[in-house]
């Protein structure tokens, strides 16, 4: 290590304290790879400031350092696209430091009149949900990693989840932000005005920016009143086309209380039942498609509403069978059939994942065309799509054929991914619905968002980060 770097680290240690700077390789190692071990890169150090003021001071010192140091913001490190992981050594244009805000965990008292909660970036989603619940409110954002995903990362990736159908993704729930620019300048965008027509909405640029524009340090999040009743049903359907017909029926008859509408392919359910203990299949016969639907509200007639819609669906041959959760334990068991899909596919062998979206009416065509394309390329591949039909977001995952060598299967992945993306592109969809771009998908930005759109993104990036030192190689392709 050069004398100059050693001096910088010494100064940062003085600023951040003994818990605020990690430099030993064993301490740094968990931060340098993503949780799926797909991405890994070296880091000079891990900065762990305990406050916005500490972060500002540290960034100012790094900005004044004569040697270029690049910075990688990191939240709970639960992302799927390598957006919070340093670049591999061969791709780094300068030494990289990881900036983790995990020590910033303060939650302010809920403002019931404003209907908001103010949380620092290191607060986990589960902790924020608990704080809202203690005040009789709900933070209506639910994702699988909510016990470890942190608010800063959730906002930076515009996380969605199963309740986005009713409440929107993180973008719709952000009422205000505090952020810090790469040079240490604090940006106060925390005002939660319902109406504020004074220029550009800068906070909305930061939502979904994946740490490429600024460090999100605090977020003011919109809450909703807690709902006292909910009904859950698990339905069997003859095909993907019936899924949209059922969604239309629920939208027309119960749209104001429709909380979630989740699709699971028949093949995906087969994999889950074969590889996970503790799952109970609640229907008499298997089907080609399943939907888990939840209604939530204050109405005492919620059960009657659910039964009425399902009766109409059965009479119209949209649904072939359905079961209702008649207790909290039963409702949880039905939700488990959806929530454990990713874990089941992991246990089933090698898998190739796609986080895609298309206009909602095009979901059946996506499922049918992409399934046929993959099976034509690799007979026996287990096509296991599932996801959030109500916002067109399908996790179109492929699991290796039984008995096939995992490495051989993964070598077939590029052709099948291209085939899936060809269908998505033709339907006017997106290659990244809620998982982000990170470093996994940057090479796709030119063909999908190129021309004037990507050029403008580069200019926005340069306005916030003129030297390109903040999360380089993520979202915006490197030149």
From TrEMBL:
Annotated GO MF terms: catalytic activity; FAD binding
UniProt KW Flavoprotein keyword: yes
Cited Gene3D superfamilies: 3.30.465.10, 3.30.70.2190, 3.30.70.2740, Uridine Diphospho-n-acetylenolpyruvylglucosamine Reductase, domain 2 (3.30.43.10), Vanillyl-alcohol Oxidase, Chain A, domain 4 (1.10.45.10)
Gene Ontology biological-process entries: respiratory electron transport chain
Positions of the FAD-binding PCMH-type domain: 39-226
Keywords: FAD, Flavoprotein
InterPro entries recorded: FAD-bd_oxidored_4_C, FAD-bd_PCMH, FAD-bd_PCMH-like_sf, FAD-bd_PCMH_sub1, FAD-bd_PCMH_sub2, FAD-linked_Oxase-like_C, FAD-oxidored/transferase_4, Oxid_FAD_bind_N
Top-level taxon of origin: Bacteria
Cofactor: FAD
Flavoprotein in keyword set: yes
Record family assignment: Belongs to the FAD-binding oxidoreductase/transferase type 4 family.
Annotated protein name in UniProt: D-lactate dehydrogenase/oxidoreductase
């Amino acid at each position: 290590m050069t004398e100059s770097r050693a001096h910088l680290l010494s100064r940062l240690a003085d600023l951040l304290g003994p818990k605020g700077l990690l430099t030993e390789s064993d301490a740094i190692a968990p931060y340098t790879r993503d949780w799926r071990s797909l991405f890994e890169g070296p880091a000079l150090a891990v900065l762990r400031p305990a406050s916005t003021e500490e972060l500002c001071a540290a960034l100012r010192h790094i900005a004044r350092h004569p040697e270029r140091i690049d910075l990688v913001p990191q939240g709970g490190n639960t992302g799927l696209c390598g957006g919070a992981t340093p670049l591999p050594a061969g791709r780094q244009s300068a030494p990289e430091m990881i900036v983790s805000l995990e020590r910033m965990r303060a939650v302010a008292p809920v403002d019931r009149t404003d209907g908001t909660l103010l949380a620092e970036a290191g607060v986990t989603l589960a902790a924020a949900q608990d704080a809202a619940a203690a005040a009789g409110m709900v933070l209506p954002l639910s994702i699988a990693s909510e016990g470890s995903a942190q608010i800063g990362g959730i906002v930076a990736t515009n996380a969605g989840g199963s309740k986005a159908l009713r409440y929107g993704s993180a973008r719709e729930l952000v009422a205000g932000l505090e952020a810090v620019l790469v040079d240490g300048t604090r940006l106060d965008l925390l005002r939660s005005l319902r109406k504020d027509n004074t220029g550009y909405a800068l906070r909305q640029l930061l939502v979904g920016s994946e740490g490429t524009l600024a460090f999100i340090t605090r977020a003011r999040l919109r809450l909703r009143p807690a709902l006292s009743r909910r009904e859950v049903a698990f339905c069997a359907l003859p095909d993907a086309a019936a899924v949209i017909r059922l969604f239309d029926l629920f939208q027309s008859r119960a749209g104001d209380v429709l909380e979630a509408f989740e699709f699971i392919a028949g093949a995906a359910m087969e994999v889950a039942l074969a590889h996970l203990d503790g799952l109970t299949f609640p229907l008499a016969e298997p089907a080609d498609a399943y939907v888990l639907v939840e209604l939530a509200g204050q109405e005492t007639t919620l059960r009657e509403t659910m039964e009425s819609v399902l009766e109409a669906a059965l009479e119209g041959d949209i649904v072939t069978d359905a079961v209702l959760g008649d207790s909290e334990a039963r409702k949880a068991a039905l939700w488990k059939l959806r929530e454990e899909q990713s874990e089941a596919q992991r246990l089933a062998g090698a898998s190739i994942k796609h986080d895609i979206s298309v206009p909602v009416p095009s979901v059946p065509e996506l499922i049918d065309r992409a399934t046929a394309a993959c099976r034509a390329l690799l007979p026996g591949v287990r096509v296991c799509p599932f996801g959030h039909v109500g916002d067109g977001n399908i996790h179109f995952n492929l699991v290796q054929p039984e008995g096939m060598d995992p490495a051989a299967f993964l070598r077939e992945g590029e052709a099948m991914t291209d085939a899936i993306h060809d269908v998505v592109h033709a339907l006017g969809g997106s290659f990244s619905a809620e998982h982000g771009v990170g470093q996994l998908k940057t090479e796709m930005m030119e063909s999908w968002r190129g021309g004037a759109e990507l050029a403008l993104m580069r200019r926005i990036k340069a306005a916030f980060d003129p030297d390109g030192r903040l999360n380089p190689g993520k979202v915006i392709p490197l030149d």
